[in-house]
Amino acid sequence: LLGSRITEVTAMTDTFITTRPVPLGVGVGHSAVAVSDERREVENEDYVAALARTAGGALVTLESSRVAVGPRAEYVVEVYGTGGSLRWSFEHPEHLQVLLLDEAGHRGYTSVMTESGYGDYGRFQPGPGQHLSFDDGKVVEARQFLESILTGRQVAPSAGDAWAAAEADEAVVASAADRSWHSVPEVTGTTYAF
Fold it and tell me: Which positions ≥6 away from 162 have C-beta within 8 Å?
C-alpha cells in the first residue's frame, strides 16, 4: 500500500483508565463477562499514536484506541495527496471512497464498488457492492498462501512482511518509552508490500 518500507517512527501511548474490575469469567475480545467488586491496576495502554516516515518520503499517521467510543472494527486506511484522496474501511471492504479534485475545484467522495468477477471477490459474490464476510477473506488468504507455496511466487503478505511489521512495532514501543524518533531496521526476507 505504501510502496516503500517504513524507515523511522515516533510514538506516544497513554492509559486513561488506570484500574478495571476483575472479571469473574473468561471472555473473548470485548465480550461481556460478569465482573467482581475488586479492581486491579491496568498494565497495558488504552491508546497509541505513531508518526512514521517511509523510504519514499511519505508521512504516515497511525492511531488506535481500545477504549474510545465509536466504531468497533473500522480499521480505516486514508491516503491524501494534492490531487485527491482515497479512503477504505474494513467495515465496508467492497467500497473504495475516491475524491479527485476537478478543474472547477469540486470536492466530494464517490463510492466505487467492487464488481462481480473482480479477483477473489467474484468467487464469493454474484453482484457488485455485496459484502465479503470476514470468513470469506480468510479463505482468500489461505488460497493466496497455498498459491505462494505452489508457485514459488509471493502473491500476498509474507513472513518477511510480518517481520517488517514486527520491527516497526518494536520501534513504536521503544519510541513511546523514550519519546524520540527510532529507526526501523530493514528486513532481509521477501516482502510483498514493497
Answer: none
